[in-house]
Specification:
Elements (H helix, E strand, L loop, with lengths): L12 H7 L9 H8 L13 E5 L5 H8 L3 E6 L2 H10 L4 E4 L12 E7 L12 H11 E12 L10 E3 L9 E5 L12 E5 L2 H12 L3 E6 L2 E2 L2 E2 L2 E7 L7
Parallel strand pairs: 1-2, 1-4, 2-3, 4-5
Antiparallel strand pairs: 5-12, 6-7, 7-8, 9-12, 10-11
Helix pairs in contact: 1-4, 5-6
Bound molecules: S-adenosylmethionine.
The site of S-adenosylmethionine has 21 residues, from helix 3.
Length: 241
């Protein structure tokens, strides 16, 4: 059992951000590079079969994944966001759910993408182990998990305070209560990160049971630190029931 951690965040806050947009956002550059680029040190990723975009937000990445050949499904905790995604990116299916309770059959997903979403803990009182365990349940053995997680130096952690003593967490996992967000909507949210590339690699290897490739992007973008870990993990045997 996880201890209860109170949060003041509202799962529908993101919808307010998306609704203010006059046009849908473009897909994440890192994902486009991962799926369409050719990098010798990155495993070749499939482009067909079922892809699950976990924490899909407005569907910008779900739509991209559908456009390259996947049968794409987006899952998010927020109903208003899913309404936005269905309206603007109707080429995919969208389901309400959470990273700790994914409304998808076990062993049914070829690639699971969690782009800046698996690290959100304000709405399901979970931790990385719980999210990773649920991800492993739905991805078939031999399938892939692709995720991005902000580094602790990322602007979202400015002034944040560490949430301590969350049972069941692995060494190197860090959970932070967000205090300042330049856009305002994530204050009170609990966002997780890792102390190092080694720590995220160890957690992902233990959780998914297959090979893990970790990359990172370190960037100052007009005064905001946009630094990220990017992980590709293959799911190994011993699939949970
Ligand atoms: C920073 S946005 C990223 C959205 C999208 N992946 C993208 O790259 O545009 C984080 C998303 O995660 C969703 N989210 C937050 N907690 C979640 C959870 N426990 N399970 C699933 N989605 C969650 C939010 O509603 C939001 O849409």
């Amino acid at each position: 059992m996880l201890d209860s951690i109170s949060t003041e965040s509202d799962p529908d806050d993101y919808a307010k951000l998306f609704e203010a947009r006059t046009r849908p956002a473009l897909p994440a550059e890192g994902l486009v590079r991962l799926f369409l680029g050719d990098y010798p040190n990155r495993p070749g990723l499939p482009k067909t079969g079922k892809v699950l975009d976990l924490g899909c937000g407005d569907g910008r990445n779900t739509s991209f994944l559908a456009s390259i050949g996947f049968d794409a499904v987006g899952v998010d905790v927020s109903n208003p966001i899913l309404h936005y995604a269905r309206t603007h990116h109707g080429e995919a299916e969208y389901l309400v759910g959470s990273s700790s309770n994914i409304p998808i059959e076990k062993n049914s997903v070829e690639v699971l993408v969690a782009w800046n979403s698996i690290n959100y803990f304000g709405h399901d009182n979970a931790n990385f182990s719980k999210h990773f365990g649920e991800v492993k349940r739905v991805v078939r053995v031999g399938g892939y998990v692709v995720m991005s997680v902000p580094m602790r130096r990322n602007f979202i952690f400015d002034n944040s305070s560490r949430v301590h003593d969350w049972p069941g967490s692995r060494p190197g996992e860090e959970y932070m209560r967000i205090e300042s967000d330049p856009w305002g909507h994530r204050v009170g949210e609990i966002i997780g990160s890792f102390s190092s590339e080694e720590a995220i690699k160890t957690s992902a290897s233990e959780a998914f049971g297959g090979d893990v490739w970790v990359s990172s992007t370190v960037s100052d973008w007009f005064g905001l630190d946009y630094s990220w870990f990017v992980v590709v993990a293959q799911v190994g045997g011993n699939q949970g029931v």
